[in-house]
Design goal:
magnesium; alpha+beta; about 35% helix
């Protein structure tokens, strides 16, 4: 994608974040909010805020970039006419949103479908006014400032000194996934559940008292697509559980603060078969 074309879409990503954020703020900490549980997915909810925010973003994309495709969480996907597609999750962390906790985010990704290459990713937290932006090949930004990942070049940490995070233990469905999660939980210094997309942006920022590893499964493309450029843009690593690049069919995700920790975690995962 040419620089000027990408710049146009970076601008659009920020507008999408502003637009969805304004809608989401109207429903945050509202009692008796219209919501439902998705019975086909483990521990997954949707609210009126999810749907309205997503629909508004879709309408703006169709207006500004009508040939771009859209892969979305709540509605029907739109086929791409030019090889590019937006990947949208209006509220990643709906369980936190409905509890009135500001540890959720709107995920906005743009992917080159022909090369399976995420071009940009944006995470917006409208309540705390926090925004992360990753562009492939460039340093990632937090509120328009370059992020310094303090653990990027620190390769002295063993797994026994890191924090393992996952959104919920319920996401490990198969016996193999449960065995891998259990093994890593025993090896790592501590395990923390909850967080959704905030696990990944916290890893990128180095906010944690120790390096982090994120281990998750039972995911959809919109759960992680926007996070890939952000993690990679700070020197972190994010792949599937075999160490391969993530794609639209991936469901298992492993992210680490640096290459050394990622390789240590992969070794444990692969030893479980």
């Amino acid at each position: 994608m040419k620089d000027e074309t990408l710049d146009l879409r970076v601008n659009l990503a920020n507008r999408l974040a502003d637009l969805s954020g304004n809608i989401i703020k109207q429903y945050f900490r509202q009692s008796n909010l219209e919501s439902e549980t998705k019975i086909t997915e483990v521990s997954s909810m949707v609210t009126i805020a999810d749907r309205l925010a997503e629909n508004a973003m879709v309408d703006l994309i169709k207006k500004e970039c009508p040939e771009d495709g859209i892969i979305r969480e709540e509605g029907e996907n739109i086929n791409s006419k030019n090889g590019y597609a937006w990947v949208l999750d209006p509220i990643d962390g709906t369980s936190s949103f409905v509890k009135g906790l500001p540890i959720f985010g709107t995920l906005i990704g743009l992917v080159d479908l022909n090369n399976n290459l995420p071009l940009l990713g944006c995470v917006n937290q409208p309540i705390l006014q926090e925004r992360w932006l990753g562009i492939t090949g460039k340093p990632s930004l937090f509120n328009n400032k370059i992020i310094n990942n303090p653990y990027k070049n620190n390769h002295d940490y063993p797994l026994a000194a890191v924090c393992l995070t996952s959104t919920t233990p319920l996401m490990f469905i198969t016996p193999r996934q449960q065995a891998i999660a259990s093994r890593l939980q025993k090896v790592c210094r501590r395990t923390a559940f909850g967080g959704d997309c905030y696990n990944y942006v916290s890893l990128a920022m180095g906010w944690t008292a120790m390096p982090m590893i994120v281990l998750e499964s039972d995911l959809k493309y919109y759960d992680f697509c926007a996070l890939i450029p952000i993690i990679e843009g700070v020197g972190g690593i994010i792949t599937d559980w075999a160490g391969n690049a993530l794609n639209s069919n991936s469901t298992e995700v492993l992210a680490a603060s640096n290459q050394n920790l990622h390789q240590q975690a992969l070794k444990v995962i692969l030893s479980q078969g």
